[in-house]
Design goal:
The protein has five helices and 16 strands. It has one domain. It is α+β, with helices and mostly antiparallel strands. The chain has a six-stranded antiparallel β-sheet.
């Protein structure tokens, strides 16, 4: 049995035990070329950290060990992770582009909005002047979450860690999402109108071509967590665009609007363009 098949089986088991959702929410690019190879797909959602933990663990294994943390690259194997928790329980506001992890992890973040916030749920409530945010979001890795400000779009570009400005590609990328609501009105205590699925993740290649895109699985009620990630056989992802929720954070999370924030980002060791 090949390593790829083993990882596929681990992923499938994680999905079956973590969520009771249809697995047809992932959509490969409209690419009909014969050389296209679909990536491994990992997705899960549920009300607790444990609901997605197994799938996140399987995704880490597919990216590879070790966690290279802040070691200069490029390294031949392993992965990078960003959990936003380095500032403890403080609220940190950063401009766009946000280069705080560019050198140490190889990721640069941009948004059409004004910047980004890293904060615990109470800090999100203060930042967006909405007290309900202290109750509807839970972190996957405590204490902080992450969100764009003035937009619901986050773009990630990859660079060689330690190199600063050397463009790179990676084999895979995944993210944790907080409070992705169901679109069909079945969530307890929620009256959903005609709003559709709110959260999308898109993967792009070096030439800007769409490699893969998917809606992110939802969880009923407030405070749920979701995960979505993919892994290719070779480094080919140059950029990832996340649309988190229907609108930028600030209004209430209600029947017409789904407000979603982010937690851990995980990606394969960035490799320089050949």
């Amino acid at each position: 049995m090949t390593k790829r098949l083993l990882v596929s089986l681990v992923s499938a088991v994680g999905l079956l035990t973590a969520i009771a959702l249809p697995l047809n929410q992932a959509y490969a690019q409209r690419n009909t070329t014969k050389d296209f190879v679909a990536p491994l797909v990992f997705q899960a959602a549920g009300p607790t950290i444990e609901s997605i933990q197994g799938t996140v663990g399987a995704f880490r294994a597919a990216l590879g060990d070790p966690n290279n943390a802040n070691a200069p690259g490029p390294l031949p194997s392993g992965r990078r992770e960003i959990n936003w928790d380095g500032g403890g329980s403080a609220t940190t506001i950063s401009p766009t582009p946000f280069a705080g992890f560019l050198v140490i992890r190889g990721a640069l973040f941009t948004t059409p909005g004004t910047g980004f916030v890293q904060a615990p749920p109470s800090g999100l409530a203060d930042t967006f002047n909405n007290p309900t945010y202290a109750d509807i979001f839970q972190p996957f890795s405590a204490p902080r979450l992450f969100s764009p400000i003035g937009s619901n779009v986050t773009e990630t570009q990859f660079f060689v860690p330690g190199g600063g400005n050397i463009p790179a590609v990676t084999t895979g990328f995944g993210a944790v999402f907080a409070d992705v609501d169901e679109p069909d009105g079945s969530g307890p205590g929620k009256k959903r109108g005609n709003r559709g699925a709110s959260t999308l993740i898109e993967y792009f290649g070096v030439q800007g071509q769409l490699l893969f895109s998917s809606l992110v699985p939802a969880s009923p009620g407030d405070g749920g967590l979701s995960f979505f990630g993919i892994v290719f056989d070779d480094p080919r992802i140059a950029r990832v665009r996340i649309t988190s929720g229907d609108v930028a954070p600030e209004p209430d999370d209600d029947g017409n609007r789904d407000i979603v924030v982010l937690d851990d980002f995980l990606f394969g060791e960035p490799q320089p363009l050949q």
